[in-house]
Amino acid sequence: MGTYAAVVLAGGAARRMGGLDKPALPVGGRPMRDRVLAAVADATPRVLVGAADAVPAGVRVVREDPPGGGPVAAAAAGLALLDTDVTLVALLAADLPLLTRAAIGDLLHHLDRTTPDTGSAGGRTDPAPPVRGDLAAPLIRDGLAEPPARDGLAAPSARDGLAEPSARDDLAAPSARDGLAEPPARDGLAGGERRPDGACFVDGDGRRQSLCGVWRVTALRAAVDRLAVERGGSLSGAPVRALLAGLVVSEVAWSGEGPPPWFDCDTDEDVRRAEEWAR
Predict the structure, then answer these.
(1) Structure pTM?
(2) What are the two backbone dihedrals, phi and then psi, of residue 93, each rounded to the nearest 5 degrees?
(3) HEC string for 63-74
(4) Which of 66, 70, 211, 222 has a Cα at 20 to 30 A from 48?
């Protein structure tokens, strides 16, 4: 799909871990945020949103407004640094130490589908016929098992608050507003079908890992503008679910080798499990 940018969100409060700088915690000998940035080493530009003493060469750093304002405010700050010719962006949490370039490639390929298996942020649609076989990861449907655990480790739980039925305490936000209308259908697809606005991984229970996804920049910018108007100009504390409401999302089940790339570290136990997988 050509070039893409990456925005990595590293501004959470990590209250479950005593307020530590969670993205700086090492997994496999490297800070989690550096592992995420390495997974998108070919992205141009790479933007880290949050406080950071040191980052890899070439990474731009910016703070959300206000600092600690949550993932939507951080996403807006990162998007503001992208040039107008950037069309795709990986929007990622900084606590995904198992993320790989292969996983990002899976999302990019899945987004490059003319007739997507999609659902809006408010629900799913029936699947379209299979396309591009080996490039398209299958959708999770009800009743399918979680990806197999490795080395006797149980499959990880969903990311609270980003997959949203419940809010992560470091990215906590109010519930999404009801009644947000979908944008009109886009030109160029038969029957008025919209191409997907983004693709993100889902866990074994079919819950979206929204901050482990790739998105069309125009769609995200329009969503930021719409949400800012709805909230009276402030994005502080806004939930990711409200940002993505009305967008068409391709839901991607991880089918590659290795641990699930969407596994995030919210607790000390999560970090220990990531260490086991990273060996």
Answers:
(1) 0.73
(2) -75, 155
(3) CCCCCCCCHHHH
(4) 222
